[in-house]
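Help! Submission page says 'invalid entity' but I think these are all valid:
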Amino acid sequence: MSAYLAPDAQLPYCRGCGHASVVRQLSRAFERLQLPPRSVALTTDIGCVGLADSLFPYLHTVHTTHGRSTAFATGMALADVLFEQGSLKPVVMIGDGGAMIGLLHLVHAAQLNVDVTVLVHNNFLFGMTGGQHSALTPVEFVTATTPTGNYVPPLDLLELLRAAHAGFLARQSATDAGLDALIAEAIAFPGFALVEILELCTAYGTRWNKLTGAKLKEIATLQGYALGKPEASLERPTFREVIRHQQQNSHVPHATRPEVLRQVEGATLASELRLVVAGSAGERVQSAAGLLARAAVAAGLYATQKNDNPVTQGTGFSLSEICLSPRPIEYTGMEQPDVVIVVSADGLKELVANGTLAGTRPETLLVMDVELDVPPANGRLVRLPLRQRATPQRAALAAIAAWQALAPILPPAAWDAALETLPADRRGENITALQAGRELAECQSGPAKPT
Ligand SMILES: Cc1ncc(C[n+]2csc(CCOP(=O)(O)OP(=O)(O)O)c2C)c(N)n1
Ligand code: SF4
């Protein structure tokens, strides 16, 4: 692959901004490594630095909350080691502001030694919000919040991460011709790697300070920073190696609680299926949906789950959006669900409010508690006494089981495999809920039309 950057990419930064240079060098680094585009998860932080996603249309991109990009990338790396082949390459693009806000995520990723590469775009200030100083702003540097020059010594990020046992740490200026090779080396490093890239923000940094490209090296010297060659150490085992070792040496009997889902055969799903489960907070809606996702994965399907509930956690609605597919799922939107399961008034209210019911079609199957008002929706309606017969705590899983009894796609063995992954003391209640749902479906004469 010769171009990871979109050929017609319009770089959205101010003229001369260091972010543009890093974007080009990062693309060249990918070219050097010839990484399959789908193996890269480019994770961007908030700020001007976060405008890079759309410039790399061939890669997976995730735009995250401020300071948290490293945490998202770490999560992806952990999941890739545990559930996939461990071949994903998460690359984080974060500003010095974001690095300061999410400092502990960097420390934690370094401690874990996950295969995550972090590019800290250090332009010495918060660019997007008007040039405020960060913890990495050099002494005497003028910013919006240090108008007479910063007097607080900057945090030496590399020293801090060295204390967190990071294996690959390097610092370079955005204008250095060898930056692409250095970034490629960081990405190829099997554990945690971080490159701090010194840059100029031409909107604020150069407006308030007498700076040119060459001044970046001067700033580095003044802070006592060496540029270029990283300190790499392969002596520490990576997270991947630690997990592989644990898996090979684990003495936990498999049947007690397997780390890896037991695989079964017999799924009958030809194309993607999108399902929403909605109920009340605290009534195990999301864990019921999670069990369904596990059963699907046990049966060889791909599954995604997105949960939602109000910030208050213990009150109001709780819902899960599940996509199931025989092929990798590349889009998890829920504009037109195939199946809608509603087990409480809170859940129904939320599905009306968030527009899910407006997206129902004549083919949509709605499984609802019989006590609920018939909603303004299209589709085939199945109303069951879920809360009364299965209890509110078990209604969501019972409804899922009823749907599966009416329109099965998973073999019973898939549910057994999913149940095995639960702690032993939680299996019984789930088996009861599944049984209740199947019995309710047996009594059901057939789907009706909503009014
Ligand atoms: C949690 C949170 N706090 C603050 C903001 C406001 N905010 C948006 S962009 C930004 C500055 C980002 O600066 P930096 O990370 O250095 O990136 P740059 O813009 O310089 O590329 C801030 C503080 C936010 N979006 N979210
Ligand atoms: S404000 Fe600064 S960091 Fe943002 S695009 Fe402009 S020069 Fe770059």
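Support: the input was valid. A stray whitespace character was the problem, and the output above is from the cleaned input. Residues 45-49, 66, 95-98, 121, 123, 126-129, 134 surround thiamine diphosphate (ligand 1) (CB under 6 Å).
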